Queue: 2 jobs
Job 1
Amino acid sequence: MTREHTPKLILILPCYNEADVLPVTAPLFLAKLRGLIADGRVTDASRILFVDDGSSDGTWDLIKGFAAEDPHFTGIRQSRNRGHQNAVLAGLMEAKDHCDITISLDCDGQDDIDAMDEMLDAYAAGSEIVYGVRNDRETDSFFKRFTAARFYKLMNRMGVESVYNHADYRLVSSRVLQAFADFQEVNIYLRGMFPLVGFPSTCVYYKRQERAAGRSHYPFSKMAGLAADGITSLSIRPIRIITALGFFVSLISLIGIIWILITHFTGHTVAGWASTTAIICFATGIQMLSLGIIGEYVGKIYLESKHRPRYIISERTEEKEE
Ligand code: UDP
Ligand code: MG
């Protein structure tokens, strides 16, 4: 399938305390969009949508300034900081009825904007979702590279289908977004959810750059939190592992009981303190861990059952068109 029409594109840029970086990157995004418009790849109605994730620095004022300068710039502001995933979701939901395609990417210039050309090619050739995949991690520290590799391995092992080395640089058509809007969960992990929506998809490879300015908001602790959230939101494999562990411990206990009976009847009395204590410690440890993991899921059910809004937009640079 190839498409004939020129699509309207909305770029979605989540920003949290990015006042250092936006003056550098916003002109680059605008130049890129203008280039795409001039080449006839996207329509002139295409937009750059900044999603201010409740920043406490001058980010929102900057966004308002951009919007006043050029009509291609627009912005929405979340009522408070809700995290990167919710910011991207707010942007996607805002855009879904007003465009043909969206591309979400970091606003710090790390995601290579030139990969958009290939993404648009893939869309023109029929893909509805195009995953941006980084093909190197040279610019990252050894620690970030190592933890990131473990992150993807862990996610897959725990039953979360995700595209290796794909973060949130992604082209998504409005057709997919309409279907995605029915995924109503509050705990969201976008890169694991889009593969579940289906539709034809493909990958585009790019080289990730250094941050243009400012510093990362994703330290190891947040990344670990994202992994835990992703797993418990999308997979019940940890609970299955608990079940398997339960079987395993039962089996060992059975062998232990047989051993106890044999020693009892053969008259070898053992000094039983060490073995008893070891078994108690082992069993209690596993029980606590299992309860904790089950508790994670119960907590998630609790949070989901409230049906709280997933984002709240407090300000817009332009009136919402219906
Ligand atoms: N971000 C956000 N809300 C947050 C944290 C980050 O919207 O609570 C945005 C941030 O402005 C950036 C993107 O998410 O555009 C990725 O964050 P960052 O660059 O800090 O992470 P890294 O690229 O180092 O993983
Ligand atoms: Mg970044």
Note: The pocket of magnesium ion (ligand 2) is lined by residues 106, 108, 110, 211, 216 (CB under 6 Å).
Job 2
Amino acid sequence: MRKIIIDTDPGQDDAVAILLALASSELEVLGITAVAGNVPLALTQKNARIICELAGRPDIKVFAGAERPLVRELVTAEYVHGKTGLNGPKWPEPKMPLQDGHAVRFIIDTLRDHDKGSVTLCVLGPLTNIALALVQAPDIASRIQEIILMGGGFFEGGNTTPAAEFNIYVDPHAAKTVFTAGIPLVIMPLDVTHKALTTAKRIAAFRGIGNAAGKATAEMMAFFERFDEEKYGTDGGPLHDPNVIAYLLEPDIYKGRKVNVEVETGSELTMGMTVVDWWAVTDRAPNALWIKDLDDDRFFGLLVARLKTLP
Ligand code: RIB
Ligand code: CA
């Protein structure tokens, strides 16, 4: 089993990623760490617990992390996710507890307590918690097996500004800290997630599963996609975060290239832009596997197959 920590700002797409992870026996979820992003921290930590309970996993340890980015003010995305961050279904109040202790402490302690190179970080929101852990405990950088993250965009540009994708835009300084730490990185940018659209047929397939997880996923997607359908004029919106988990389960769904990626933190115009040296025109060393393509039917087929195993 692959040991993972999921760092997340739920968000409907984060929620589907968490469901996919909890439905996959190949993965051992050591804990879930919430960060401020799509909605403020008080909601992201609550939403993470709601989703664990939907998956029938009130045993999962959920921690609250950073309430705001390292340097900049928090920017949230209620315009996409709704006021609660999980608009769509009607949710009960979570009963499972939030763990005591800060998420950053949990990340550091877990990496130190497990064999070097045996824990993967799956990062679905702004990278604030990960950067804080690296600054507080630089020794953990060499202990992380791999970081798989959703963030950035190059061929697709940005979704929050013309230049920047939301997760990187919210905390560009955190992203820069992580991207320059020498940790093996796999990045799922808008370049690939914009090819994973929640079409009406795919939402019907979620609903057709016939269990609570399938129904909630269909209702979350129906709400979540409306903003992007309007913006991009597509049938369905891009389903971002579950690609991080799907990559761990079936990496050959994806195609990418080892490249150098730098993050803009100086210019306000391009703040949070991921500058990808796709054609190796600089001597900057490659620091990430940048994913550009996927087999979208396989991705959604995997999602349906795994959601079927949940309550
Ligand atoms: O830009 C999309 C990303 O920002 C996704 O992770 C979404 O959940 C938000 O966090
Ligand atoms: Ca997210």
Note: The pocket of alpha-D-ribofuranose (ligand 1) is lined by residues 9, 11, 13-14, 37-38, 124-125, 150, 159, 165-167, 240-241 (CB under 6 Å).
